[in-house]
Write a sequence for this structure.
Protein backbone atom coordinates (compact mmCIF):
# COMPACT_ATOMS: atom_id res chain seq x y z
CA UNK A 1 0.00 0.00 0.00
CA UNK A 2 1.53 3.32 -1.07
CA UNK A 3 1.62 6.36 1.22
CA UNK A 4 -1.53 8.53 1.36
CA UNK A 5 -2.39 11.92 2.84
CA UNK A 6 -3.13 10.33 6.24
CA UNK A 7 0.29 8.70 6.26
CA UNK A 8 1.99 12.02 5.47
CA UNK A 9 0.17 13.66 8.40
CA UNK A 10 1.17 10.82 10.69
CA UNK A 11 4.78 11.11 9.49
CA UNK A 12 4.82 14.84 10.20
CA UNK A 13 3.59 14.05 13.74
CA UNK A 14 6.38 11.51 14.21
CA UNK A 15 9.03 13.98 13.01
CA UNK A 16 7.70 16.78 15.26
CA UNK A 17 7.75 14.37 18.23
CA UNK A 18 11.43 13.55 17.62
CA UNK A 19 10.78 10.17 15.99
CA UNK A 20 12.22 8.48 12.91
CA UNK A 21 10.41 8.08 9.59
CA UNK A 22 11.72 5.95 6.73
CA UNK A 23 10.91 7.72 3.48
CA UNK A 24 11.15 6.81 -0.19
CA UNK A 25 13.35 8.89 -2.47
CA UNK A 26 14.16 8.36 -6.14
CA UNK A 27 17.59 6.96 -5.20
CA UNK A 28 17.18 4.75 -2.10
CA UNK A 29 15.01 4.82 1.04
CA UNK A 30 16.17 7.23 3.74
CA UNK A 31 15.93 7.05 7.54
CA UNK A 32 14.64 10.52 8.34
CA UNK A 33 14.56 12.80 11.39
CA UNK A 34 13.90 16.50 11.97
CA UNK A 35 17.24 18.02 10.93
CA UNK A 36 17.05 20.62 13.71
CA UNK A 37 16.39 18.14 16.52
CA UNK A 38 19.82 17.05 17.78
CA UNK A 39 18.37 14.22 19.89
CA UNK A 40 16.41 12.79 16.95
CA UNK A 41 19.51 13.05 14.77
CA UNK A 42 21.48 11.17 17.43
CA UNK A 43 18.87 8.40 17.29
CA UNK A 44 19.59 7.92 13.57
CA UNK A 45 23.24 7.13 14.36
CA UNK A 46 22.18 4.76 17.12
CA UNK A 47 19.66 2.88 14.97
CA UNK A 48 22.04 2.57 12.01
CA UNK A 49 25.04 1.68 14.15
CA UNK A 50 26.86 4.49 12.36
CA UNK A 51 29.92 6.29 13.81
CA UNK A 52 28.90 9.80 14.96
CA UNK A 53 31.58 11.44 12.79
CA UNK A 54 29.93 10.20 9.57
CA UNK A 55 27.91 13.21 8.25
CA UNK A 56 24.28 13.06 7.05
CA UNK A 57 22.43 14.67 4.13
CA UNK A 58 19.77 17.32 4.87
CA UNK A 59 16.77 16.92 2.54
CA UNK A 60 14.83 20.07 1.73
CA UNK A 61 11.61 20.69 -0.20
CA UNK A 62 12.95 22.99 -2.91
CA UNK A 63 15.97 24.89 -4.23
CA UNK A 64 14.44 28.14 -2.90
CA UNK A 65 15.03 26.92 0.67
CA UNK A 66 18.75 26.31 0.16
CA UNK A 67 19.77 29.70 1.60
CA UNK A 68 18.09 28.82 4.91
CA UNK A 69 20.46 25.91 5.52
CA UNK A 70 23.86 27.13 4.37
CA UNK A 71 26.19 30.02 5.06
CA UNK A 72 26.49 31.06 1.44
CA UNK A 73 25.44 29.77 -1.97
CA UNK A 74 28.22 30.07 -4.57
CA UNK A 75 27.18 30.60 -8.20
CA UNK A 76 28.19 27.03 -9.11
CA UNK A 77 25.83 25.64 -6.47
CA UNK A 78 23.00 27.85 -7.69
CA UNK A 79 23.55 26.61 -11.24
CA UNK A 80 23.64 22.93 -10.27
CA UNK A 81 20.62 23.22 -7.97
CA UNK A 82 18.61 24.94 -10.69
CA UNK A 83 19.46 22.29 -13.24
CA UNK A 84 19.32 19.09 -11.18
CA UNK A 85 16.85 19.62 -8.30
CA UNK A 86 14.66 17.87 -7.50
CA UNK A 87 16.99 15.01 -8.34
CA UNK A 88 19.84 12.69 -7.33
CA UNK A 89 22.43 15.41 -6.67
CA UNK A 90 23.75 16.38 -3.22
CA UNK A 91 25.67 19.63 -2.76
CA UNK A 92 28.22 20.12 0.01
CA UNK A 93 28.25 23.75 1.21
CA UNK A 94 29.24 25.76 4.26
CA UNK A 95 26.98 24.85 7.20
CA UNK A 96 24.29 27.34 8.19
CA UNK A 97 23.58 28.00 11.90
CA UNK A 98 20.33 26.07 11.65
CA UNK A 99 22.11 22.76 11.09
CA UNK A 100 23.22 21.06 14.32
CA UNK A 101 26.78 19.73 14.39
CA UNK A 102 25.30 16.31 15.22
CA UNK A 103 23.99 16.16 11.64
CA UNK A 104 27.31 17.07 10.02
CA UNK A 105 29.49 14.84 12.17
CA UNK A 106 31.12 17.97 13.57
CA UNK A 107 32.01 19.41 10.15
CA UNK A 108 31.53 23.07 9.22
CA UNK A 109 30.06 21.95 5.90
CA UNK A 110 26.66 20.41 5.22
CA UNK A 111 25.34 18.15 2.47
CA UNK A 112 21.93 19.18 1.06
CA UNK A 113 19.58 17.81 -1.57
CA UNK A 114 16.02 17.99 -2.89
CA UNK A 115 14.77 14.44 -3.54
CA UNK A 116 12.69 13.76 -6.66
CA UNK A 117 9.94 11.58 -5.24
CA UNK A 118 6.30 12.60 -4.78
CA UNK A 119 6.05 11.08 -1.28
CA UNK A 120 9.30 12.68 -0.07
CA UNK A 121 8.29 16.05 -1.53
CA UNK A 122 4.79 15.81 0.01
CA UNK A 123 6.34 15.03 3.39
CA UNK A 124 8.86 17.87 3.14
CA UNK A 125 6.10 20.32 2.12
CA UNK A 126 3.82 19.26 4.98
CA UNK A 127 6.64 19.22 7.54
CA UNK A 128 8.09 22.54 6.43
CA UNK A 129 11.60 21.95 7.80
CA UNK A 130 14.60 19.90 6.70
CA UNK A 131 14.85 16.13 7.12
CA UNK A 132 18.25 14.56 7.73
CA UNK A 133 18.32 11.11 6.23
CA UNK A 134 21.04 8.60 5.57
CA UNK A 135 20.14 5.49 3.58
CA UNK A 136 17.82 3.35 5.75
CA UNK A 137 20.18 0.40 6.21
CA UNK A 138 22.47 -0.75 9.01
CA UNK A 139 25.92 0.82 8.71
CA UNK A 140 27.97 -0.77 5.94
CA UNK A 141 25.22 -2.92 4.45
CA UNK A 142 23.24 -2.65 1.21
CA UNK A 143 20.93 0.37 0.81
CA UNK A 144 17.18 -0.39 0.70
CA UNK A 145 15.23 0.28 -2.51
CA UNK A 146 11.79 -0.91 -1.34
CA UNK A 147 9.75 -0.40 1.84
CA UNK A 148 10.04 -4.14 2.54
CA UNK A 149 13.85 -3.85 2.42
CA UNK A 150 13.62 -1.12 5.08
CA UNK A 151 11.42 -3.25 7.33
CA UNK A 152 13.81 -6.17 6.91
CA UNK A 153 16.81 -3.94 7.77
CA UNK A 154 15.43 -1.89 10.64
CA UNK A 155 12.23 -3.55 11.91
CA UNK A 156 10.74 -1.80 14.94
CA UNK A 157 13.69 0.56 15.31
CA UNK A 158 11.94 2.98 12.94
CA UNK A 159 8.65 4.58 14.04
CA UNK A 160 7.01 4.72 10.61
CA UNK A 161 7.84 3.47 7.11
CA UNK A 162 6.30 5.43 4.22
CA UNK A 163 5.86 3.17 1.20
CA UNK A 164 6.59 4.90 -2.10
CA UNK A 165 7.16 1.78 -4.20
CA UNK A 166 10.48 0.71 -5.69
CA UNK A 167 13.10 3.48 -6.09
CA UNK A 168 13.40 4.61 -9.70
CA UNK A 169 17.12 5.47 -9.74
CA UNK A 170 18.32 2.75 -7.37
CA UNK A 171 21.78 4.07 -6.45
CA UNK A 172 22.49 7.01 -4.12
CA UNK A 173 22.83 10.63 -5.15
CA UNK A 174 25.98 12.09 -6.66
CA UNK A 175 27.75 14.23 -4.04
CA UNK A 176 29.51 17.38 -5.29
CA UNK A 177 31.61 19.55 -3.00
CA UNK A 178 31.15 23.18 -4.04
CA UNK A 179 32.95 24.78 -1.10
CA UNK A 180 36.28 25.15 -2.91
CA UNK A 181 37.37 26.99 -6.04
CA UNK A 182 36.94 23.86 -8.13
CA UNK A 183 33.87 21.63 -7.67
CA UNK A 184 34.70 18.01 -6.92
CA UNK A 185 32.68 14.80 -7.06
CA UNK A 186 32.95 13.08 -3.66
CA UNK A 187 30.66 10.17 -4.54
CA UNK A 188 29.46 9.22 -8.04
CA UNK A 189 25.70 8.58 -8.16
CA UNK A 190 22.42 9.15 -9.96
CA UNK A 191 23.46 12.33 -11.78
CA UNK A 192 26.25 11.47 -14.22
CA UNK A 193 29.64 13.13 -14.34
CA UNK A 194 29.01 13.87 -18.03
CA UNK A 195 25.78 15.78 -17.24
CA UNK A 196 27.52 17.77 -14.49
CA UNK A 197 30.42 18.61 -16.78
CA UNK A 198 28.04 19.73 -19.54
CA UNK A 199 26.38 22.20 -17.16
CA UNK A 200 29.61 23.43 -15.57
CA UNK A 201 31.55 23.54 -18.82
CA UNK A 202 34.62 22.00 -17.18
CA UNK A 203 35.98 18.54 -16.40
CA UNK A 204 35.39 17.20 -12.88
CA UNK A 205 37.73 15.06 -10.81
CA UNK A 206 36.28 11.86 -9.33
CA UNK A 207 37.78 10.08 -6.36
CA UNK A 208 39.60 6.82 -7.01
CA UNK A 209 37.82 3.81 -5.55
CA UNK A 210 40.27 2.76 -2.88
CA UNK A 211 41.54 5.53 -0.60
CA UNK A 212 39.31 6.93 2.12
CA UNK A 213 38.56 10.51 1.03
CA UNK A 214 35.77 11.96 3.12
CA UNK A 215 34.50 11.03 6.55
CA UNK A 216 32.58 7.82 6.27
CA UNK A 217 33.73 6.81 2.79
CA UNK A 218 34.81 3.39 3.99
CA UNK A 219 35.70 0.79 1.41
CA UNK A 220 33.38 -1.85 2.86
CA UNK A 221 30.18 0.13 2.21
CA UNK A 222 27.22 -1.32 0.30
CA UNK A 223 28.33 -4.86 1.13
CA UNK A 224 26.04 -7.88 1.14
CA UNK A 225 26.70 -10.76 3.53
CA UNK A 226 28.20 -12.81 0.70
CA UNK A 227 31.79 -12.10 -0.33
CA UNK A 228 31.94 -10.30 -3.69
CA UNK A 229 34.73 -10.94 -6.20
CA UNK A 230 35.21 -8.91 -9.37
CA UNK A 231 36.60 -10.47 -12.55
CA UNK A 232 36.65 -9.53 -16.23
CA UNK A 233 33.22 -9.94 -17.88
CA UNK A 234 34.38 -12.86 -20.03
CA UNK A 235 35.76 -14.63 -16.93
CA UNK A 236 32.55 -14.53 -14.87
CA UNK A 237 31.19 -17.93 -15.96
CA UNK A 238 34.56 -19.70 -15.52
CA UNK A 239 35.21 -18.12 -12.09
CA UNK A 240 31.73 -19.09 -10.93
CA UNK A 241 32.16 -22.66 -12.11
CA UNK A 242 35.50 -22.97 -10.34
CA UNK A 243 34.00 -21.76 -7.05
CA UNK A 244 30.99 -24.01 -7.54
CA UNK A 245 33.19 -27.06 -8.07
CA UNK A 246 35.11 -26.22 -4.90
CA UNK A 247 31.86 -26.48 -2.95
CA UNK A 248 30.94 -22.85 -2.41
CA UNK A 249 27.39 -21.55 -2.72
CA UNK A 250 27.86 -19.22 -5.67
CA UNK A 251 25.79 -16.33 -6.99
CA UNK A 252 26.58 -14.74 -10.35
CA UNK A 253 26.00 -11.34 -11.91
CA UNK A 254 25.89 -12.48 -15.51
CA UNK A 255 26.89 -9.58 -17.81
CA UNK A 256 24.31 -8.70 -20.48
CA UNK A 257 26.82 -9.53 -23.23
CA UNK A 258 26.81 -13.14 -21.99
CA UNK A 259 23.05 -13.48 -21.49
CA UNK A 260 21.95 -17.03 -22.14
CA UNK A 261 25.41 -18.51 -21.47
CA UNK A 262 24.98 -21.57 -19.26
CA UNK A 263 26.56 -20.94 -15.83
CA UNK A 264 27.22 -23.39 -13.01
CA UNK A 265 25.95 -21.49 -9.98
CA UNK A 266 23.28 -21.60 -7.30
CA UNK A 267 21.75 -18.27 -8.29
CA UNK A 268 22.12 -16.11 -11.38
CA UNK A 269 21.19 -12.41 -11.64
CA UNK A 270 20.95 -11.39 -15.30
CA UNK A 271 22.55 -7.92 -15.56
CA UNK A 272 20.35 -5.71 -17.78
CA UNK A 273 21.96 -4.17 -20.86
CA UNK A 274 20.71 -0.69 -19.90
CA UNK A 275 22.66 1.10 -17.15
CA UNK A 276 19.44 2.75 -15.90
CA UNK A 277 17.88 -0.67 -15.39
CA UNK A 278 21.06 -2.06 -13.83
CA UNK A 279 21.19 0.82 -11.32
CA UNK A 280 17.55 0.18 -10.42
CA UNK A 281 18.25 -3.53 -9.85
CA UNK A 282 21.76 -3.57 -8.33
CA UNK A 283 20.89 -3.51 -4.62
CA UNK A 284 17.91 -5.83 -5.16
CA UNK A 285 20.26 -8.34 -6.81
CA UNK A 286 22.71 -8.19 -3.89
CA UNK A 287 19.87 -8.69 -1.40
CA UNK A 288 18.36 -11.53 -3.42
CA UNK A 289 21.65 -13.45 -3.66
CA UNK A 290 22.07 -13.02 0.10
CA UNK A 291 18.54 -14.37 0.61
CA UNK A 292 19.47 -17.38 -1.49
CA UNK A 293 22.29 -18.11 0.93
CA UNK A 294 25.22 -17.40 -1.41
CA UNK A 295 28.70 -17.38 0.19
CA UNK A 296 30.25 -15.80 -2.87
CA UNK A 297 29.06 -13.46 -5.61
CA UNK A 298 31.04 -13.33 -8.86
CA UNK A 299 30.54 -10.07 -10.78
CA UNK A 300 32.30 -7.75 -13.22
CA UNK A 301 32.47 -3.98 -13.59
CA UNK A 302 30.51 -2.09 -16.23
CA UNK A 303 32.28 0.46 -18.41
CA UNK A 304 32.71 3.54 -16.20
CA UNK A 305 30.67 5.98 -18.25
CA UNK A 306 27.33 7.54 -17.38
CA UNK A 307 25.69 5.60 -14.53
CA UNK A 308 28.41 2.96 -15.01
CA UNK A 309 30.69 5.13 -12.84
CA UNK A 310 28.35 4.86 -9.83
CA UNK A 311 27.67 1.17 -10.45
CA UNK A 312 31.40 0.38 -10.58
CA UNK A 313 31.97 2.43 -7.40
CA UNK A 314 29.30 0.45 -5.49
CA UNK A 315 30.51 -2.91 -6.81
CA UNK A 316 34.12 -2.11 -5.83
CA UNK A 317 32.98 -1.14 -2.36
CA UNK A 318 30.84 -4.27 -2.07
CA UNK A 319 33.98 -6.24 -2.93
CA UNK A 320 36.20 -4.17 -0.61
CA UNK A 321 37.79 -5.22 2.66
CA UNK A 322 35.32 -5.76 5.50
CA UNK A 323 37.43 -5.05 8.54
CA UNK A 324 37.56 -1.20 8.55
CA UNK A 325 34.94 0.87 10.39
O1 LIG B 1 20.71 9.29 -2.40
C1 LIG B 1 21.15 9.59 -1.30
O2 LIG B 1 22.05 10.42 -1.16
C2 LIG B 1 20.50 8.89 -0.09
C3 LIG B 1 19.04 9.34 0.01
C4 LIG B 1 18.37 8.81 1.25
O3 LIG B 1 18.99 10.74 -0.03
N1 LIG B 1 21.23 9.20 1.10
C5 LIG B 1 22.46 8.70 1.38
O4 LIG B 1 22.90 9.05 2.63
O5 LIG B 1 23.08 8.02 0.62
P1 LIG B 1 24.15 8.33 3.34
O6 LIG B 1 24.15 8.88 4.72
O7 LIG B 1 24.05 6.87 3.20
O8 LIG B 1 25.37 8.90 2.57
C6 LIG B 1 25.69 10.25 2.73
C7 LIG B 1 27.06 10.53 2.24
C8 LIG B 1 28.14 9.95 3.12
O9 LIG B 1 29.08 9.29 2.31
C9 LIG B 1 28.76 11.15 3.78
O10 LIG B 1 30.12 10.97 4.04
C10 LIG B 1 28.52 12.24 2.75
O11 LIG B 1 27.25 11.95 2.25
N2 LIG B 1 28.47 13.57 3.37
C11 LIG B 1 27.48 14.08 4.14
N3 LIG B 1 27.80 15.32 4.58
C12 LIG B 1 29.02 15.61 4.08
C13 LIG B 1 29.89 16.73 4.18
N4 LIG B 1 29.58 17.78 4.89
N5 LIG B 1 31.07 16.66 3.53
C14 LIG B 1 31.40 15.56 2.79
N6 LIG B 1 30.61 14.47 2.66
C15 LIG B 1 29.45 14.48 3.30
MG1 LIG C 1 24.38 4.89 2.96
Amino acid sequence: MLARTDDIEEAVGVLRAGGLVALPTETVYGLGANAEDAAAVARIFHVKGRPPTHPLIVHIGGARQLDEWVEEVPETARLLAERFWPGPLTLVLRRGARVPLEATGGLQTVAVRVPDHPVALALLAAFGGGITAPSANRFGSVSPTTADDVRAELGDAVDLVLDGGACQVGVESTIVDVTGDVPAILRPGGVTREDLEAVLGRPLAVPSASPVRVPGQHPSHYAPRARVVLVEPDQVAAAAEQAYESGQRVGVFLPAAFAGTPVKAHAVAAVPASLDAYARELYGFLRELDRQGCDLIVASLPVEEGLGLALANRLRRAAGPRSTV
